[in-house]
Design brief:
Pectate Lyase C-like, 21-stranded mixed sheet, 21 strands, about 5% helix
């Protein structure tokens, strides 16, 4: 068993990071079933759920999704669009399931250009097994983009997506707390352009189908995009076809300022694909020149016991010894 050593400075900064507790600011609750949603696994409940969202928007209140399977349209402008200052709470037995489609790109939930949004509990299920197209890789469970800020995911499971379980692009202050991404085709979580992302006590597993098939992929697509102030703590990366945590760009990713981590390689039936513990990424930044990863200081990671392919314990492109 090997571990990456975390510096005292990183430990202190990690402890000082804001947590995941974020209660609704209003006692107002709207139950989607009171707006006509059936949750019977057959009816298209998209419109009824959106009515509840529109009613609660801006109030600080909660849209409640009781137990049941709610079929939703994940395509285009008809998909579910969350609004600012609200909580979407799914009961433990509640599932938002994408109606099978042939689109290259979709999202079960869109959190776009809004702020102060929390999604709690339940399951989002994609159409991976029933997808009617063969191309594309951008079918997302939750898409957070276009300047969205102060967004919290807590206890949410996103599984079986044609693309990623969770996707972040052009966002600020995003928290993933005790989430699970399972059996998604491209990524568990993609981070493209963001400032301030916390991932804690989460599980990213069984990602496979199209490259890079990573648990978490930090991948600025353009020279103008940056990923800064990322913390990944207490999370597990299990049986992903690619890396547990991968960092890449058009010419590869790099660290600027700090790269500190603590990661424990577990003994398991798949030791080359298992990683548990935490990686603290103090300041990950993509430059305008798109240079490859470089560690400026405090890189003291030890190679784990995996052999052969670099496996999910790696930080792809880490100079020296990836863990």
């Amino acid at each position: 068993m090997a571990a990456c050593l975390i510096s005292p400075e990183a430990t202190a900064q990690s402890r000082a990071s804001p947590g995941c507790a974020q209660a609704p600011t209003s006692s107002l609750v709207v139950d989607v079933k009171n707006k006509g949603a059936k949750g019977d696994g057959e009816t298209d409940d998209t419109a009824a759920i959106q009515v509840a969202i529109e009613e609660i928007a801006g109030t600080g209140g909660t849209v409640l999704v009781p137990d049941g399977t709610y079929m939703v349209n994940a395509e285009g402008e008809d998909r579910l669009r969350l609004k600012s200052d609200m909580t979407l709470k799914l009961s433990t037995g509640a599932t938002l399931k994408a109606i099978p489609n042939s689109s290259k790109k979709y999202s079960v939930l869109s959190i776009s250009g809004v702020s102060n949004v929390t999604v709690v509990g339940g399951t989002l299920e994609g159409d991976r097994k029933q997808h009617m197209g063969k191309s594309g890789e951008w079918g997302m469970g939750i898409r957070i983009d276009r300047g969205a800020s102060h967004i919290t995911m807590r206890g949410v499971t996103s599984l079986g997506m044609w693309g990623d379980g969770f996707y972040v692009d052009d966002a600020k202050d995003v928290k993933f707390c005790s989430v699970t991404a399972d059996n998604n085709r491209r990524q568990g979580l993609s981070i493209i352009d963001a400032d301030g992302v916390l991932v804690t006590d989460s599980v990213f597993k069984n990602t496979s189908g199209t490259r890079p098939s990573a648990g978490i992929d930090l991948e600025p697509d353009k020279a103008t995009q940056e990923i800064t102030n990322v913390q990944i703590r207490g999370s597990k990366f299990l049986d992903n076809a690619g890396s547990g945590i991968q960092m890449s760009g058009k010419k590869g990713p790099y660290f600027e300022d700090r790269a500190n981590g603590q990661c424990v390689q577990e003994q398991s039936p798949h030791p080359r694909r298992e990683c548990s513990g935490s990686a603290f990424l103090g300041d990950l930044r993509q430059s305008a020149s798109h240079r490859s990863i470089r560690v400026i200081r405090r890189s003291q990671c030890l190679r784990g016991p995996g052999r052969g392919r670099r496996a999910s314990k790696q930080l792809s492109g880490w100079s020296g010894r990836p863990f």
